[in-house]
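Justification of resources, computational component.

The compute hours requested in this renewal are based largely on the per-chain cost of generating structure records like the one below. Each record pairs the submitted sequence with a full structure-token output. That output is archived, and it is also reused by downstream analysis tasks.
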Amino acid sequence: MKLIKLFVCSLCFFANLALAETDASGEETIGLLRATLSVSDMEKSLLFYRDILGFTVRSVSPYNAPNLRRMFHVPEGVVPEFALLDASPEQPRALGLVYAPGVVIDRKANMHYAPAIVFNTNSLDLIHKRMLAQNVEVLQAPAPLLDFTGKAIGREAAYYDPDGARIVLFEVSK
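The structure output for this chain reads:
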């Protein structure tokens, strides 16, 4: 398997490229393995992703791997902390958080230029209430989610995480 690294602002996506011999059809495939974010405060970020969005923390520990240091521009002498979060039992290790003292996260730049992370949920109203209770900045309150023809297919909402990354929630109608 081949690892593809895509770098955008403070957001780093890891995608796992499965070669043709792993696909019965003979076609090359690609799947998103994990989104990993640089964060300015691990506790605030865990509060947001664990307590508000409902991720389960798999682990939080120091992680001084050379590749992580390079990707997230960790200064010499600083040991980064790495958290792995599960979205569900079917989606383990779906989100990574990297905190390194001394690495500055430009929240304002993230709010304007960082890509959005989109999650599907069946609990939009409940999550929206938790967002409001924690004074999370709302980019868009729950509103109709339209397909490309203009037909309503559910609802969506958007928020900023503690470091300004845009978080979009979809609740697709059944």
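The longest strand covers residues 29-39. The CA atoms of residues 40 and 105 lie 6 Å apart.
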